[in-house]
From TrEMBL:
One GO BP annotation of this record: proteolysis
One GO cellular component, as annotated: extracellular space
Segments crossing the lipid bilayer: 12-31
Keyword Zinc: yes
Function per UniProt: Secreted enzyme that regulates the endogenous N-fatty acyl amino acid (NAAs) tissue and circulating levels by functioning as a bidirectional NAA synthase/hydrolase. It condenses free fatty acids and free amino acids to generate NAAs and bidirectionally catalyzes the reverse hydrolysis reaction. Some of these NAAs stimulate oxidative metabolism via mitochondrial uncoupling, increasing energy expenditure in a UPC1-independent manner. Thereby, this secreted protein may indirectly regulate whole body energy expenditure.
Protein name per UniProt: N-fatty-acyl-amino acid synthase/hydrolase PM20D1
Organism: Sarcophilus harrisii (Tasmanian devil)
Upper classification of the organism: Eukaryota, Metazoa, Chordata, Craniata, Vertebrata
Family: Belongs to the peptidase M20A family.
Length: 519
């Protein structure tokens, strides 16, 4: 029965446009739909009893894992472009992991291959061939980091106030090192997995993964390998994201946006700067990209995955939430306007356009013959590459601008995240074990791109989840300033992987409780 006056209250709140309240409401919708299974449902998961190895690490091990990460951060494995990567640092990284993870490189059931000189593929042969293998994925390259603005030099790996600072501490050497570290610690405890798995470390993720992940995926495909699921970066424990919600929640990205790098070019006759034409190539191009920046792509809230997710949820709630969810044609615009206010949530509701490079000019007194600007677009799941390109052309609306698509791909399909989805449920279960403060898990979309997208031919279960807690401030440090990870967070990441690898040693997926609802 409907609660008296609830509709009126909901109406008042929305009409008042109270940002925090509506955000909180969205959060309730998402969080309430993703509660954990009851403990009974989790029986039979992974190793139990005597064969279970506790995630307890000695002081010496904790110091060693911290130092190993710091050293990895000190290697400037920067990718500037596919043709310009720091091969010296990448090679050094290869030597580093051989030194700090000796068990990994000397265990008979583990095969290590170097792919395209700098990427690493480990095959860990499990004892039970009936269990379909999976993959843990990370990348070892980083984006450039000029010293300016950093509290400590970005490749110093310095420890300060319980944090390790440096480029790659959250994107994504933390994962690369933590995966290897967890396996090394398990091996030191005589662990032999039942389920086979792969560890894949790409060396050029930050420049599309063409020679790393893409080649590894092709290699595995040529061997006829299919994977139950893959876990990469791109989802996190979200902390302090929603006003009024103190508890962190886990965001497992079950898809990721499409992408396009588009170069715009204007050519004009060069000449003497003392007799300039009315418009130069720089001026024409600057005006074009300015129009793009000032004209956001359409807000797609309600037309992509959000719509189907929310519609599926609608029946699970009482009044007034069910009404709101089944009437997104009324409430959608309010929610979508709120979401577009911050960069992170704005990225969820539309294709984003970032002006990232601008090149022109050869001398101070020469009219430039050409100007080039590169824009980086992240395509909302409800749009495609051709649709977005068409919008760009219409916004620019200037025939003097020419377009070169440098690379482009459509948004990724949604990976299964129901009660039968082994990889998703494995993550949920391990989150429950390792992050007791987290009470909910939601299936999200990754607004950045990951190496996982290269593996669609060999797995349908691509999950992007890094077991670290991030707040809005730490999101700014991705590709930005003062990237850092707390030592405690890194240890927890290692512990998470240590548990997850053991939890994967089962064929059972927990049956849902009849009353439980899953996204
Ligand atoms: C209600 C809470 C809303 C929070 C919205 C946050 C959405 C976060 C989703 C994904 C996080 C994206 C992290 C980026 C991964 C980094 C991978 C990377 O750098 N790849 C290269 C590239 O994308 O260029
Ligand atoms: Zn990354
Ligand atoms: Zn990155």
């Amino acid at each position: 029965m409907a609660e008296p006056g609830a509709a009126a209250s909901a109406g008042r709140l929305l009409a008042m446009g109270v940002t925090g309240t509506v955000l909180a409401l969205v959060a309730v919708l998402l969080l309430r739909t993703a509660t954990f299974p009851e403990p009974d449902e989790l029986r039979g998961w992974g190793r139990t009893g005597a064969s279970r190895i506790p995630a307890q690490f000695s002081e010496a091990e904790r110091t060693a894992m911290k130092e190993a990460l710091k050293e990895a951060i000190q290697m400037p494995t920067v990718s500037f472009s596919s043709e310009n990567i720091n091969t010296t640092a990448l090679a050094e990284f290869g030597e580093h992991i051989r030194k700090v993870f000796p068990f990994l490189f000397s265990t008979s059931f583990i095969q290590h291959e170097v792919v395209e000189q700098y990427s690493h593929l480990f095959t860990i042969h499990g004892s039970d061939p009936k269990l379909e293998p999976y993959m843990l994925l990370a990348h070892i390259d980083v984006v450039p980091a000029p010293n300016d603005g950093w509290e400590v030099p970005p490749f110093s790996g310095l420890e300060r106030d319980g944090f390790i600072y440096g480029r790659g501490t959250i994107d994504n050497k933390n994962s690369a090192m933590a995966i290897l570290q967890a396996m090394e610690l398990l091996l030191r405890r005589n662990y032999v997995p039942q389920r086979s798995f792969y560890i894949s470390l790409g060396h050029d993720e930050e420049v599309s993964g063409t020679y790393g992940a893409q080649k590894i995926a092709a290699l595995l495909e040529s061997r006829g390998i299919e994977l139950s699921f893959i876990i990469d970066e791109g989802g996190y424990i979200m902390d302090d994201f929603i006003p009024g919600f103190e508890k962190p929640f886990a965001w497992i990205s079950v898809s990721e946006k499409g992408g396009m790098n588009l170069m715009l070019q204007v050519d004009s006759d060069p000449g003497h700067s003392s007799m300039p034409p009315k418009e130069t190539s720089i001026g024409i191009l600057a005006a074009a990209v300015s129009r793009l920046e000032k004209t956001p792509m359409p807000n797609m809230f309600g037309y992509g995955t959000e719509k189907s997710i929310l519609e599926q949820l609608a029946g699970q709630f009482g009044f007034p939430l069910n009404i709101i969810l089944t009437n997104l044609w009324i409430f959608g615009p309010i929610m979508s306007r709120i979401l577009e206010k911050s960069p992170a949530t704005n990225a969820m509701v539309r294709t984003t356009v970032a002006l990232t490079m601008f090149n022109s000019g050869i001398k101070v007194n020469v009219i430039p013959p050409t100007a080039q600007a590169t824009i980086n677009l992240r395509i909302h799941p409800a749009q495609t590459v051709p649709e977005v390109l068409e919008i760009v052309r219409n916004v620019v609306a200037d025939d003097r601008v020419r377009y070169h698509v440098l690379n482009a791909f459509d948004p990724l399909p949604l990976s299964p995240h129901d009660n039968e989805a082994f990889g998703y449920q494995l993550l949920k279960r391990t989150i429950r074990d390792v992050f007791p403060e987290v009470t909910a898990v939601v299936p999200g979309i990754c607004v950045g791109n990951t190496d996982a997208r290269h593996y669609t031919n060999i797995s349908k279960g691509l999950y992007r989840f890094n077991p670290i807690a991030l707040n809005p401030q730490s999101f700014k440090s991705f590709h930005g300033l003062n990237e850092k990870i707390s030592i405690q967070a890194y240890e927890t990441q290692v512990a998470f992987l240590f548990e997850l690898i053991q939890n994967a040693d089962t064929e059972k997926v927990p049956r849902p409780h009849s009353a439980e609802h899953e996204l």
